[in-house]
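Quick one: co-fold with pyridoxal-5'-phosphate.
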Amino acid sequence: MDFLTTQQTFELYDKFVIANYTRQPLVIVRGQGSYVWDADGKRYLDLFSGWAVTGLGHCHPKLVAAIKDQADTLLFMANHLYTQPQARLAQLVSENSFGGKCFFCNSGAEANEAALKLARLATPKEKYKTITFEHSFHGRTFGAISATAQSKYHQGFQPLLAGFTYLPLNDLDAVLAAVDDETCAILVEPIQGEGGVNFATPEFLTGLRELCDDRGLILIFDEVQTGVGRTGKMFAYQHTGVVPDVMTLAKHLGGGVAIGCLEAKPEVAAYLKPGTHASTFGGNCIAAAAGCAVMETILADHLLENTNRLGAYAMTRLREFQQRQPKITAVRGVGLMIGVELAMGGAEVVKKCLAKGLLTNCTHDTVLRLMPPLTISQAELDEGIAILESALSEV
Ligand SMILES: Cc1ncc(COP(=O)(O)O)c(C=O)c1O
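Sure, here it is.
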C-alpha cells in the first residue's frame, strides 16, 4: 500500500472515511518492536501501543508466525463447529486466571455487553440494575456507554439503557447504600485507564466481593485495558487476590488482531445457553491463534518480569523528573501502565512528543498515559522519558 503518499492518504480519508476520530497528522506504514515508521520514513518510539493493544511490540516474530501459520491452515470457521485455536485460547485464559469458561467476541465493548447480559441471566429476573464507577470507561456500544460513568460519552445518546447507577470509586459505603433488590451486578475496572490511571483499592475490591457474595450479585472486572500482562501480572485482579465472577478482556489479548473475551466462573457461565448470545466472528481462528501466541509468548519469554522491572524503573525515573518539573503533579502506575498527571492540559505535550518522534497519549485532559510494549528495553524507555522531558520543558 506504499504507493500512496502522505498527502494522498489524507485526501482519501477526507473524502471516504468518516471523521469520528481526532487523528494526529501521521500515516504509519510499518512497525517493528517498539518503533513505527511513517510514510516519509521518519521513525517514532511507540510508548502508547495503540491503547495497550500491541503489548508484544509491533510485528513480534512469534505473533506474526502464528497468524501466518493459521492463515495457511484455516482462515475461518464459524461457531456451529469446533476449532482448535479457540479451545487452546480458552484453556490458556482459564488456566492463567480463575479457572472459568470463555465466550469470545471481537472487542472490549462487546465483551462488556456480553457480561451485562450474562449478569441479568444469572440473577433472578426482577434484577436488572448494575453499579459502575465515576470516570469509568467500558466502550461505545449502547450498553457499554450506559455503563460508562462519564457524561461526555452520553451526549446525544439519551435516553441510555435503564438501570445504571454511577458511584465514586473506592466509596464502599456509597455502594452498600445503593444496592437494592433490583441490583444484579457491579462492574469495575481494577485500574481505570481512560479515567486517568486510577486505582480501585484492595480494600474496596474486597468489600465489593463480600457484598456480591452476601447479596447474590455478579462481580464483573473490566480488564480490557489492564489484562494480559499490562500491569505486571497476567491480570490486574491478581495484585489484590480478589477474584471476580466475570472478567472481560480485549486489546492485548490479540496483540493487534481484533478479539474480545468474557471469562466467567463455570457456575455463572452455565447461564449463557444456546440462543442467549453469539458472535459470528467471535473466537475465529486467526484471532484465537493470535491470542494463544500472545499469552504463550508472555509466559515463555518472561515478559511479566520485564514489565515489573522496567515499570518500576520508569516510575523511579518519572518521579525523579517530577522533582525537577513542577508541571507534573503526580506519577502513578503499576507495571507498564503509567499515568503522569499534569498541572495543565496534556494535548500540546502529546503533539510536541510526536514532533520529536515519540507516540504517547493524554487521557482525561491532564493525564499523560504511557503503556509501552511489555518487550521494551531500558534504553528505549530512557529515550522516551528524555523526549518527554524535553517536550514538557517546551510547552
Ligand atoms: C477498560 C475498557 N473497557 C472497554 C473498552 C472498549 O474496548 P473496545 O474499544 O475494544 O470496544 C476500553 C477501550 O479503551 C477500555 O479501556
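If it helps, The mean pLDDT is 97.
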